[in-house]
Amino acid sequence: MSTFNSLPIFVALVEAGSFSKAGEQLDSSKSAVSKRISQLEDELGVRLFNRTTRSLTLTEAGEEYYEYASQALSLAKEAEY
């Protein structure tokens, strides 16, 4: 799986704040979102989120990755026009 294909899922999860809300926005299940994020973390070799039953927060690496990922998606959308 290409990490680039995971960028919209990663950004949606950060902005939604939960797997279920991100799944709703992406018309996908929360388990599918969770699986893609786990695969992305495996590919990058770093944890992007701290997960508990009640909260989801970005790690330091996740915060840095989010900055680049959101910029990449924004630039890709601009290129479509």
Defining key terms:
2 strands; 81 residues; globular; mainly alpha; two-stranded antiparallel ribbon
Secondary structure: elements and pairs:
Layout: H1 3-16, H2 19-26, H3 30-44, E1 49-51, E2 56-58, H4 60-79
Antiparallel strand pairs: 1-2
Helix pairs in contact: 1-2, 1-3, 1-4, 2-3
| Average predicted local confidence, pLDDT | 93
Distance between the termini: 27 Å
| Overall strand count | 2
Order of helices and strands: HHHEEH
**Percent of residues in helical segments?**
over 70%
Main β-sheet: number of strands, strand sense, barrel status? 2 strands, antiparallel
Count every helix, treating DSSP H or I runs of 4 or more residues as helices.
4
Report the β-strand fraction as a percent range.
5-15%
The poorly predicted ranges are: none
Structural class, from helix and strand content?
mainly alpha
Approximate shape: globular
What integer value in Å does the Rg equal?
12 Å
Order of strands in the sheet with most strands: 1-2
Explain the overall architecture:
By secondary structure, the protein is mainly alpha-helical. Helices cover 70% and strands 7% of the residues. It has 4 helices and 2 strands. Strands 1-2 form a two-stranded antiparallel ribbon. A hairpin with a 4-residue loop joins β1 and β2. α1 (3-16) crosses α3 (30-44), α1 (3-16) crosses α4 (60-79) and α2 (19-26) packs across α3 (30-44). It is globular, with a radius of gyration of 12 Å. It starts with a helix and ends with a helix. The relative contact order is 0.16.
